[in-house]
Design a protein that fits this description.
The structure is a homodimer of 222-residue chains. Chain A is mainly alpha-helical and 222 residues long. The first copy, chain A, folds into two domains: 92 residues, Winged helix-like DNA-binding domain superfamily/Winged helix DNA-binding domain (Arc Repressor Mutant, subunit A); 87 residues. In chain A, strands 1-3-2 form a three-stranded antiparallel sheet. The relative contact order of chain A is 0.10. Chains A and B meet through helix 5, helix 6 and helix 7 of A and helix 5, helix 6 and helix 7 of B. The structure holds a DNA duplex (28 and 28 nucleotides).
Chain lengths: 222, 222
DNA sequence: TTCGTCATGTAATGGGTTACATGATTAC
DNA sequence: GTAATCATGTAACCCATTACATGACGAA
């Protein structure tokens, strides 16, 4: 049971690890901080929270009324329900963080995984980045061959769409290349200690993300 | 009834307009020509085809056995089922093509709409392109403000993710700008006849897509 | 006092996948 | 003769949305 979505569960646990929140706020964070990718509705979020509570990964805390009001009482005054990560929940999240299987670099998952790279160990980060890159590269390969095979049968618009799509993927590959490179550089210069560890090292924090992307192009001009 | 998906229905009708096909082939075209965006499974495609037949927009033709074998007979020899667009289906597709409402430029729909721009009238093309552009621009606006509001609370990775996401959107906007520009140029130089027409002009074909993107960057090097 | 936003939920529905079941045709 | 791919379908499930219902709180 509780084969709940994965991605939402992951994101919720990750956000709650930073600080307790109630559902409404959680949803906003989901759609801004991590957002761009996915906008979850309450109809998804609240049932998910319930399930996480049922699993013992979260606890509900009713702010305001300290003890005796059950919070879920119908018709009684409704209180905000603040969700807090339990130790078991934290453990579970770290367990999830340590996985780097194929599903970690598929389209839907990759973004969220990346968003929590700050909490992820360096070697898992590397595996996920490289996994995604090779995923994209094989996709590129497929696009290229299918493009040359069907070349003449497609009109200009379809062709242009194809071209733009390929360029987008190529662009993401370049992005990944830069990230991987700076991850590699970061490891070399700062951490030979955590090198050959394979068991999930819970307590030890990652040590802070490397300052990747030397020549940042964030400048808000344009 | 038949509030089937929209996007699949649209793509199927569009592909079958070019030439009759059976389901299997249809699906491959869906995932290559138009693909990149969406991969439909048979569990989606075949029921959809049945529904389109029920609507009178397609007819099934059994290749091989000309007349008396019902094709859907169980245990009988199974024949390929070729689907062909009916006149009603063609009419319906053109009706769909002429719509340029907000759902035409949302993420899921835009790609498919664009793929059939070859069959779309120039003014609808313009509306869709401009609609998408302003959609993306308002999204950019939201991202920018949410970025400056929460700036310091985000770690490097989240920030980088955000930055890359914004850059992707900006890139698509630039792409749209080019397309819109060349559409505009194309209209000026070739067709003052179809200018101020607002009713959907069914019969009249578009007259062929303009050779947009003068300096093509398709070169397969790199 | 009303409007907007905060806040929590549920039931119906939608749109799609996975896994399964079946069989024909082609290439080796 | 057997493996791969072509080819068609169904049932069970999954994830999420929509629309709805409820209500608190602050500002105009």
């Amino acid at each position: 049971m509780s084969r709940r979505s994965g991605i939402l569960e992951f994101a919720v646990l990750g956000l709650l690890r930073e600080s307790p929140m109630h559902g409404y706020e959680l949803r906003k964070r989901l759609n801004t901080s991590l957002g761009v990718f996915r906008a979850f509705s309450y109809g998804t979020l609240y049932p998910c929270l319930k399930a996480l509570v049922a699993n013992g990964w979260l606890v509900e805390e009713t702010s305001g009324a300290p003890e005796d009001v059950p919070a879920t009482t119908l018709t009684g005054r409704r209180a905000k329900i603040v969700y807090r990560l339990t130790p078991a929940g934290k453990e579970h999240f770290e367990e999830l963080l340590s996985h780097s299987g194929p599903d970690a670099w598929e389209d839907e998952h990759f973004g969220v995984r990346f968003a929590f790279f700050g909490q992820t160990s360096r070697d898992v980060r590397m595996r996920v980045l490289e996994g995604r890159r090779s995923r994209l590269e094989e996709r590129l390969e497929k696009m290229r061959t299918s493009l040359t095979r069907t070349r003449e049968r497609l009109d200009d618009y379809t062709l242009e769409l194809q071209r733009h799509g390929m360029e987008s993927v190529e662009r993401e590959v370049r992005w990944l290349n830069e990230l991987i490179e700076s991850e590699r550089a970061g490891r070399d210069q700062r951490a030979p200690e955590a090198a050959a560890q394979d068991e999930h090292n819970q307590s030890g924090d990652t040590g802070g993300p490397p300052r990747h992307r030397g020549g940042s192009r964030l400048d808000p001009s344009e």
